[in-house]
Amino acid sequence: MGSRRGRDPREPKQSRQEAIWGRGWTRTAGTERSGAGGCLRGDTGTAERLFLETRDGFVRQGIGYDAAMVSLDLARVYLKEGRTADVQRLAGEMVAIFEAQEVHREATAALLLFQDAARREEVTAGLVRELALYLEAVRADPGLQA
């Protein structure tokens, strides 16, 4: 009878995301959680820095949807501080990420509408929330990706 080699029990157990995207995903997601914590504490400078690091990590890994979701977290920080120029810049970066990663056209179209609202300085927390919900729905249901 042959022996079966399994995972070394001394090694930390891999999460589902690590199995799919590697350990870099876990580090990136941990940074995102730290950014959210900074935001909740009112430390928007730390939150901004951590959200930017997280977004850049997701972009390097080719995970456009997660990069967009973190960008929306960052947009909330900018809105809270009245930094409309930063929301405009961020919206343009989000569109560029989706176009470069060839994310389906409906999600990119939604980001283009967000970019247009940012140009008109009409982005609200409600719009950010609606866009985040839409992007999550599209990612979860490939049938929405026409």
Helical amount among residues, as a percent range? over 70%
Shape: globular
* Helix and strand run: HHHHHHH
Q: Count every beta strand, where a strand is a DSSP E run of 2 or more residues.
A: 0
Major sheet summary line: none
Per-chain topology:
Blueprint: H1 16-21, H2 23-40, H3 44-60, H4 64-80, H5 84-100, H6 105-119, H7 125-140
Helix pairs in contact: 2-3, 3-4, 4-5, 4-7, 5-6, 6-7
Short description:
By secondary structure, the chain is mainly α.
Mind explaining what this structure looks like?
- The protein has 146 residues and is mainly α.
- Helices cover 73% and strands 0% of the residues.
- It is built from 7 helices and no strands.
- The termini are far apart.
Annotation keywords:
single chain, disordered N terminus, 0% strand, globular, 146 residues
